[in-house]
Amino acid sequence: MLRDPAKQPVTVPEHGCAPGFWLREGPVPGNGSEMTRRPEACIDLKSKECCVWLPAMSLLTPRLDWILGCCTAGGCESHGQTEFQVQLSSEPAPAHGAKHLLTSGDSFDITFTPRLFGTQGLSRASNAPFTPRQRDLRAQLELPSLQTYPVPPNLGPETAEEVRKERLLEMYREFALDLHTGMYLTQLTSNRDYADIHVQLMEDLTTLKLDQSNGRIIEFPLTNVSKVYRIVKNDDKWYAAGTPLPHSSANTEQIVVVEFMRRKLAFVFKELQVSQRFLICMELLIRRAQQKQALRSLTPTFPPQHAQSRQCPTPRLVHDAMTRPIPSPPDNLK
To answer: Is this model's pTM higher than 0.90 or not?
Structure first.
């Protein structure tokens, strides 16, 4: 049995082999070429009739001498074989900061957006850099004017109001940037089917674009949203949000419904906190779009009528005003 030099280092004494190892140098029978052995690849045998031969060129590759190691037919086969015991475990290996290629996201993949919200409180600022365009969009996003602001899912009611508004703004900005990049969501259709759709927030941050992968892309203005609410589906039964369920199961689904005047969009989530985040941030985006539309409607498009009545002075009017004689003052003022 060969030893793996990378896993079990060998201390080499002056004579070239470790205790219990034996090294022989010389020409290979039938070949005539000079062969050289490294001590790490010696065979752990008490007999001195077996050794491993490798050409001197194998020294250029550190592990080639171990990979190509072999025994002579007359030495190793005459001794007892040693069994290998390999321990296999299904437990995940402890993380040392390195990410596996299958679990780490691809920075060039625009079709996959990792969910940044979770119990660990991950933030986008610490995980991914902002592009100049994302910084501009982030600067445009402020909380709309509300009488009471919702509490983020990962905070309690005892948290200070300033902290809650700060965390709410951060979560709102992260969600808007994720939605602007585009994300895949599960939609519950009108015939109770599930479909994977691509949802993206357009550049104006007021229009939602849906791609159902059937050649049709539909745009939904957020200003036309009439209602946003969450319902729970458990074992093919529907419950309002906050209603205690008779029993929780793996089939429990959190559904966020975005209702327009003529259509409803139902998005399906498995996690409660993720659905709450989607509901809160989507409602903030809708309120922002509606308030911006109301502000535009209050801003007059045309100037007031009294401003239009004033004439712009032409060169003739300016000349007539300058050549007009100045009236003399009254006699009592002289």
So the answer is: no
